[in-house]
Amino acid sequence: RTEVVGSFPFMAPEILIASNSSPYEPAGVDVWSCAVILVEMLFGVHYFNRMLGWERTTRVSPKRHAELTEKFRDVSVIGKLLQKRFDDEDVSPLEDLLRGMFEIAPARRWDSKRVAESKWPSRP
User: What does the alpha-carbon distance between residue 6 and residue 37 come to, in Å, rounded to a whole number?
Assistant: First the structure.
């Protein structure tokens, strides 16, 4: 696909720079969007925007792609985020899940099957 679809800030980075010569895979962008939803559920509405320093009125642009790439290039950002929220709890399964879902490179991002097989939340 090449058209810009979805609601900002739930759009995966590749949507922000999509073109006829650089299309994106819809399944991968859905996984990214689900990760944003999970962050919002864990930390509160508009947390993702605040984490990135975006206003609610921030518009879609290639600049947003650069900001997402820079923020998620350092995978430790997710661990730091979780430690603030969960203190001494073991967050490694959740951290692994979010790292996989927030993978900047679409080819390395977890697919829905791998997300479903995640150790978080733990199953009895």
Answer: 13
